[in-house]
Structures are given as C-alpha cells and as structure tokens.
Amino acid sequence: MYKQTTWEKLLIFEQSTPGRMGYQLDELNEKEKSFIEKAKLRISPEMLREEPLNLPELSELDVIRHFTRLSQMNYGVDGGFYPLGSCTMKYNPKICDLVTTYPKAQNIHPYQSADTVQGSLQIMYELAHWLVELSGMSKVTLQPAAGAHGEYTGIMIIRQYHGSKGNLGLKQEIIVPDSAHGTNPATASMCGFKTVVIPSHEDGCIDLEAMRTAVSEKTAGIMLTNPNTLGIFEQNIEEMIKIIHEVDGLAYYDGANFNAIMGKARPGDMGFDIVHYNLHKTFATPHGGGGPGSGPVGVIKKLEPFLPIPTIDFNVENDEYFFQYNHPKTIGKVRSYFGNFSIVLRAYTYILRLGREGLKAVSEMAVLNANYMMSKTQLIRGFFVPYCGSSFCMHEFVLSAKPLTKDTNLSALDVSKYLLDRGVHPPTIYFPLIVPEALMIEPTETEAKKTLDQFIEILADVSNLAYSGQTQSITDAPQNTSVRRIDDVKAARKPIISYRMLEQQKSESK
Ligand SMILES: Cc1ncc(COP(=O)(O)O)c(C=O)c1O
Asked: Could you give the CA distance from residue 171 to residue 187 in angstroms, rounded to a whole number?
C-alpha cells in the first residue's frame, strides 16, 4: 500500500523565530561600509528599500528539515512511475547531473572571453552539430530556454524571412492542427500571426483536404508536431510540405517528441525548414514547471542568416571556437548570453554516453513500451483508444475513459486521482482536446515491463471496482497523499503561490 508522507504544513514564514539564524556574516569594516554608502548613491532613491526585508528567521537545521519534509511530500520520477503524456518524464541518468557539478563547468562566467572558455564552446559547438546530424538541418542555435521559446524563435524566423522579402503584409497566417500542443497556436499569435486550425482526420492525422483548402497566398507557414500529440506519426508529410512550399510558406517541425524518432527519421529529410528540440525532455533533464529547459532550433541553409546571434562557430585556421555574429538578417537575441549551459552539458553527456546506436535504442524502447501498454490497456472494460488503437503508436498513446464515464459516471479525473492512491503519477488528462475523457500515456523507455504491468493492473482494478459498483475508493481518492483532492478550478484561477498572496487573502477574508 502506497502512503505519502504528511507533515504539519507550517510555512517557513510561520516557523520564524525572531533572532534565530543559520549563518552569521562578519561585521562590515569601515572600507566595506563606505563602499556600500557610495554604491547607494548610484541607485535612485525611490529604488532604495527603507524597511528591512521580511525574511523568515530560522536555524540551519530548521531550514534543512523544512525542505526535506517538503521533498518527502512531493512525487518525482526518481520515486515512482510517471507516465505523463507529452512530458517525457523518464529517468534521467545521474551522470548527467554529476558533470554539471564539476568546477570547470560551474566556475565559468558568460562574460569571459572566448579564448578562456574554449572547452565549453567546444561542447556547445559539438552538441549543436549532433543536433544538426539528428535532424537533417543545416545549423542550430542553442539559445532558446524551453520548447515554447524554441517555437517563438522559429516563428520569428518565419516572420523575418517573409519580412525580408517585403511580404509580411501578405503572409499573415500560420496553419496549426487541432491536436497541437497549446504552445503552438499561442506562439503563432504571440508572433503576430493569425492561427488557422485544421481538423484531424478520423485516423488522427491532419486532414489533408482541409489543409489544402485552408492554404493560400496568406499562409506564412505550418507548425506540425511529429509524432503528433496522439502518438501518431503523421501521414502525407511530403504532400503537406509541398502544398506549403508552393505558396512560399515555411514548414516548422515541433520536435518536442524527438525521443520517438532519434536515429530513425529526420525532419530535414522530410522537407521541414525549421525544427525545435526539447533538450530537457529528450536528453536527460526532467521536464517541469517551465524550467530549467533548453529548446534549441535548427534551420535549413537558406534560413541561417536569420538565426539569433551569436551562434558558436569553429575557425579551422586558428583551431579556435568563437562567437559568430555574422547573421545579417538575424532576429536578434532571444535570451541572455548563449543558452542554458547546464542543460546543454546534460544533453551532451547523454548523447556521448549512448552514442548513435544507443540513441536509436532509446527511441525503439520508448515506442515498444508505449505499444505494449496501448495493446493491454485498450482491452480493459471502460477504456478504448479512439485513434490508432488498431495499428501501432509511437512513444505515447491517448486512452479514452468515455465508456467508463457513460457506464459508471467515473471520469478521467477520478481515475487519475485513484492512481495517485496506488503510488503512480497520473497520465496527462483531458489533452489533446479532441479525445473525450482523455488519458494521455507516455511510459518512456526507462521503465521496466514489471512497472508497466503494475500500471495495467491498477487500471484493471479501477474497471473492476467501477463495474461492480464499488466506486467510493475512486471518488474519494486520493486518500494516501499529503494533499487530498483539490479544487482544480480554484487552483488554476486563484492560485496562492507566495506568502504575500496568502497574507493578502487572510486580510481580505477577515
Ligand atoms: C508537443 C509539444 N510542443 C511544445 C512543448 C513545449 O515545450 P516546453 O514545455 O519546454 O515549453 C511541449 C511540452 O511538453 C510539447 O509536448
């Protein structure tokens, strides 16, 4: 029986005792005091704080215990199965973390001159080169800090491409399928385009005829996720790209699901012009909470001039890595400095350790595990796979609990809460939107068959309980977690995520 730790939930501010401290700094000497006074003169008065900061006062032990308890109330992939579809919550080898702790990786500064950080530049250059190899693109920037940020970079490149031809007034639309990750239409809008949504065909792929009708001279490009969020390798890719290229549109490949195709298929060979990768999902960093991440972007030759500056290049004559600012039509910088180096280092280590055959094996295993689970779970009463159930999926699949809901009134949300009580993190639910009562399952390549079987067994238990009328343990779930069932809508609409917000809420409710 799974039981998560529960602790008295005193916030760190509420544990504060005046005068208690964990670390004492030496008194300032006269020179230091005068330095601070002089520094203050350089700061405009309205920015100077008069009142001391309201920080909690605790001993080192208090702090350690507090955060250790919090970590025990948490659920992570190092503790158990985490089949969160689209998020690739796989086990990340500890060696990748280890390398980031090496002093040579930690004690460098982005302002150092290129000749003092040749090793780091080499790592960035080589990683970019491997991403070029894996995707069939021509050049890669490592700057973007997340997948969505990579999308932003890619779509800004599309914008700049049409702008450079004087066509921006005409090219106003980006095509996005209805199964796309929410960041795709959001990115297109943020970059000033109108999103044209294309419905999925009953086979789960883009409806080619609908797309043909939607494409016009106004089309600036298409954003395509492959494998798509239903876990299906898109059909008719070459035809789609031909249609887009015929109107001088560009084809963008959302490569967030790259872990399904490594060493097997390359977006460049399919005809795509731009691709982003999620280093944090595919290559050994957990994906969570918007960071830390890295979303490099690769482009074909004709788009190289538009890349963010600087890229990292190698001068063969001097045998030297250097920052390349010569991208005449650059979209500018998209991030401070040169990229999220600690994530770059993890991805570099991951690829180096696995090598060409290892990466292929990763993708094969990710796809095998997903197919094993799909074939078993769709046989469980109350569930079915609306798309691709009769053929093969890629690294994930979307199970629907619609029959269960119809027969027993239990929803995908109830199922996911019950999974928590059994010690499993639930899959992504209610996404993609085109599947009713969706449970989007991505087992990943790092899980053993035994773990997959346990999950399948739990789902079968849900079904047995539901159809025998014993639903209370499901509707009351979760009972065994440190936080019980929360009000999801309130949590999303009125989140209280800082002590200041909590104090404000308390004073308002008085
Ligand atoms: C298909 C797809 N596109 C884009 C993203 C966005 O990536 P990020 O969360 O790093 O911004 C994700 C995230 O999982 C994704 O699954």
From this structure: 16
CB neighbour list of residue 269: distance below 8 Å, 6 or more residues apart: 136
Cβ atoms of 123 and 104 closer than 8 Å: no
- DSSP codes joined into one string, 75-91: --TTTS---BTTT----
What whole-number distance in Å separates Cα of residue 185 and Cα of residue 487? 28
The token duo for 246 is 């015929």
Q: Which two tokens stand for residue 413?
A: 């949300």
Q: How far apart are CA 330 and CA 311, in angstroms?
A: 11
Question: Of 304, 296, 284, nearest to 335 (Cα)?
Answer: 296
The residue ranges of every structural domain in the chain are 128-351
2-47 pLDDT, tens digit per residue, is 899 888 778 999 999 999 998 888 999 999 999 999 998 999 988 8
Backbone angles phi, psi at 246, to 5 degrees: -60, -25
**376-423 pLDDT, tens per residue?**
999 999 999 999 878 999 999 999 999 999 999 999 999 999 999 999
Tokens standing for residue 493: 């609409």
Pocket test for ligand 1, best of 181, 224, 442 (most atoms within 8 A of CB): 181
Q: At what angle do helices 341-377 and 118-135 cross, to 10 degrees?
A: 30
- Pocket of ligand 1, beta carbon within 6 A: 86-87, 146-148, 181, 183, 225, 229, 254, 256-257, 278, 293, 295
Distance (angstroms) between ligand 1 centre and the Cα of 53 equals 37
Residue 303 Cα to ligand 1 middle (Å): 23
Residue 136, Ramachandran bin (φ over 0: left; ψ between -120 and 50: alpha; else beta): left
> Which residue of 278, 282, 285, 287 sits with most ligand 1 atoms within 8 Å of its CB, as the best mutation to test the pocket?
278
Structure tokens given for 313: 């290049």
Q: Is the CATH number 3.40.640.10 carried by domain 128-351? A: yes
CA distance 472 to 321: 63
Q: Which residue, by CA, sits nearest to atom 8 of ligand 1?
A: 147
CA distance linking residue 271 with residue 241, whole number of Å? 7
CA distances from 144 to 280, 301, 349, 501 (A): 12, 19, 19, 31
Q: Which of 86, 184, 261, 440 to mutate to test the pocket of ligand 1 (most atoms within 8 A of CB)?
A: 86
> Do 264 and 363 contact (CB within 8 A), yes or no?
yes
What global pTM score does this model have? 0.92
257 Cα nearest atom in ligand 1: 1
405-411-412-417 Cα dihedral, nearest 10 degrees: -140
